[in-house]
Specification:
This protein is α/β, with parallel strands linked by helices. It is built from 21 helices and ten strands. The strands form two sheets. A six-stranded mixed β-sheet has the order 6-7-8-3-9-10.
């Protein structure tokens, strides 16, 4: 992106907006019509000046005035302003249509871009930045586009009025052009300042959105830890900074108009003195002098419009730079996508010398193992050992730095992401449900499924009991992240969604770790239903949930230290045995304290 500084050339100063203007191509005909209508509107004021001049000159004739003249003028006025009204209606409607269509596309593209980001980028991107771009930044660009299209007619209005002034007296008109460099300098200085402040405003607004989004999403943590006051103070400080910069920008914008008007007043005063002198000498008729003054007075309006438009375009340029910064963001490690289709897992999964880094931090180091089709394998270890990282690599949520992951002997990078991810279902500890009905949250597992299939999935996941207790049943809106349900109920809905998907590979990532014993038993039964006939990968902290696994991998510091069945690992008396002993001791201690 171009940096903002006062030394940018005219071609560089609106580089981002030029990219936005590239989106106008599908609307060339409409924009051409807008331009033609704008020229029609622009002609109205010069025609009005000419009519005013004629009226005054005719009035000077006294009794010699022709009666037909005053029949013609009203008819001309009515005709001119009727045409002007029609032209303004279609001009305004079409320009707003084009502006909104362009913004609609940008909103969709930004959302699509955000959805397509790999987790390596999303982990470092604030939700507030995205929300600010899709709301505030696009709002500024929308105003800029609308202003840009609207202001296309202003140069024609100005030139038309200047032409009328030259027609009245070319010497007088030429003398007024001495103020042009002053106005141009004013435009340049005010525009640079507004863009600088706009960049700061947009960044600060992103901070506001981030604080708001985090406070709402983490409402329970906020209340439990009594963070209302520090969060309010933080919000107030950011808002005060936003207000301070906004007022600086406002002062620059609002000062420009009265300065232009004052320059115009000085100009008109000079015109009256010089024009009056020429009229007294008989070199200028009263009608020409009045027409000239009206033309110069009206010419201030398009100049003010151009100045206001320039300032709005500078704000829009700052917003467009932020939007394109988001749209141009690419992961440091490009996520390539193959085209090879895959419909089933036929033989199994292989990890060959796989390594993964999170930025500079190593997460997994040279892992090699195999999982046969239909097996249930488990990964255990301390928090941060790399267990979840392993299963996150299967759907390519992160890209490996070294080695290969193979499905049936073919690298997963050769498959299309759509086909690859269609083979995998996830049930995680932090279950995410949408603010929608229970039915739709399950239906997301397979959007083509019938109502009966959704009900059967809910039944298999042991959801029927609590769904039947709800007044609206499947039509119950469950709130943000399923807040209206208990933890166990959310897990069972997630399992129903996974059952409906019917994927041959199932990942259970700490799916019962945060549940009480009663909820865990229900969820455990639902997971057993779900894993029938599936190749299952379990990430677990509680070793009681992995005893039946065909193979257990003990992960420490990103490496597999041990592997085997529960019984063989107990006999080996290694790391797994130590985990098991500690957990058994904790269970016994808890039982004795309860009794």
């Amino acid at each position: 992106m171009h940096s903002t500084n006062n030394k940018s050339t005219p071609s560089e100063s609106f580089a981002a907006l030029k990219r936005v203007m590239g989106e106008f191509r599908p609307y060339k005909i409409k924009l051409s019509l807008v331009l033609c209508l704008g020229i029609v509107i622009s002609l109205i004021q010069p025609i009005s000046v000419k009519l005013s001049q004629r009226i005054i000159d005719e009035l000077q004739k006294g009794s010699l005035i022709q009666g037909s003249f005053f029949r013609q003028v009203p008819a001309m006025l009515i005709g001119v302003f009727f045409i002007s009204g029609i032209a303004k209606y279609f001009h305004n409607t079409l320009r707003r249509y084009v502006a909104e269509k362009v913004i609609l596309k940008y909103r969709r593209v930004i959302f699509e871009k955000y959805l397509g980001f790999p987790l390596s980028i999303l982990d470092k991107t604030r939700a507030g930045d995205f929300l600010s771009s899709i709301q505030n930044d696009l709002g500024k660009i929308s105003v800029g586009i609308d202003t840009l299209i609207l202001v296309l007619k202003e140069p024609f209005t100005f030139l038309g009025l200047l032409g009328a002034a030259f027609y009245c007296d070319w010497r007088l008109a030429l003398s007024t052009l001495v103020v042009a460099p002053i106005v141009a300098l004013l435009f340049s200085r005010s525009g640079s300042a507004v863009k600088r402040y706009s960049h700061k405003n947009l960044e600060t607004f992103s901070d506001l959105m981030s604080v708001s989004q985090e406070s709402i999403s983490g409402a329970r943590v906020v209340k439990v830890f009594q963070l209302e006051r520090p969060l309010l103070e933080r919000f107030k400080n950011i808002q005060d900074s936003y207000f301070l910069t906004l007022m600086k920008s406002t002062r620059v914008e609002e000062l420009a108009t009265p300065v232009v008007e004052f320059i115009g007043a000085i100009l008109i005063a000079g015109v009256i003195i010089y024009g009056g002198h020429r009229a007294a000498m008989g070199l200028l008729t009263p009608g020409q002098l009045v027409g000239f003054i009206i033309a110069i007075g009206l010419a201030q309006m398009p100049l003010k419009q151009l100045n206001n438009a320039y300032l709005k375009l500078k704000t829009a340029e700052a917003a467009a730079e932020r939007v394109y910064k988001l749209l141009d963001t690419e992961p440091s490690q490009k996520q390539s996508e193959g085209t090879r289709p895959i419909f089933q897992l036929e033989r199994g999964i292989s990890f060959e010398n796989v390594s993964l880094n999170y930025g500079e931090k190593p997460a997994l180091s040279h892992l090699s193992f195999e999982i046969n089709k239909g097996d249930c394998v488990a990964f255990v270890g301390h928090s941060g050992s790399g267990k979840s990282s392993i299963v996150n690599l299967l759907p390519r949520l992160y890209e490996i730095c070294e080695g290969k992951i193979l499905f049936d002997g073919v690298s997963i990078s050769d498959f299309s992401l759509h086909d690859l991810r269609r083979l995998i279902s996830f049930v995680t500890q932090d279950t995410f449900l949408f603010n929608d009905t229970l039915f739709e949250n399950i239906h997301y597992g397979n959007p083509t499924a019938t109502k009966r299939e959704v009900e059967l999935a809910a039944e298999q996941a042991h959801c029927t009991d609590f769904i039947n207790r709800l007044k609206e049943g499947f039509n119950t809106i469950i709130g943000d992240r399923g807040v209206c349900l208990s933890g166990g109920e959310r897990q069972r809905v997630a399992i129903a969604r996974a059952i409906l998907k019917g994927a041959p590979i199932l990942v259970l990532d700490e799916a019962t770790s945060s549940l009480d014993s009663q909820s865990e038993a229900l969820v455990q039964r639902a997971m057993e239903e779900l894993s029938i006939g599936k190749t299952t990968l379990m990430v677990a902290h509680r070793l009681s949930t992995v005893r039946k696994a065909n193979r257990i991998f003990v992960v420490e510091q990103g490496k597999i230290q041990e592997s085997g069945t529960h019984d063989s690992l107990i006999k080996a008396k290694g790391i797994y045995h130590q985990f098991y002993q500690r957990q058994q001791g904790a269970v016994l201690e808890e039982s004795s304290s309860v009794s």
